[in-house]
TrEMBL record:
Gene3D superfamilies: STAS domain. This is STAS domain-containing protein. Pfam families: STAS_2. Residues 1-91 form the STAS domain. InterPro entries: MlaB-like_STAS, STAS_dom, STAS_dom_sf.
Amino acid sequence: MFKLPAELTIAKAEEFKQLLMEYAENHDDIVIDDTAVEKIDTIGVQLILSMVTYLTSIHKSIEWQCTASVIKESIEKLGIKDSILLQYVNA
């Protein structure tokens, strides 16, 4: 299971990307747990969008255990309507 950090912000972007890349190399079925996410900024939303896009492009299976309302709220505020991300977070 890949756990998203409590803060998914520009300050954590590089660290998050590196952890995801390492995890994706070693797992075909990706289960994402967002229960710890408390803070997300625009870069964080872009990161999870790029994460989902990347994982699907390399044919990884994704299961998202989406419980963090902060992610859904941020997606709505940014006006994201047509995105592969929405099928996972049910925004």
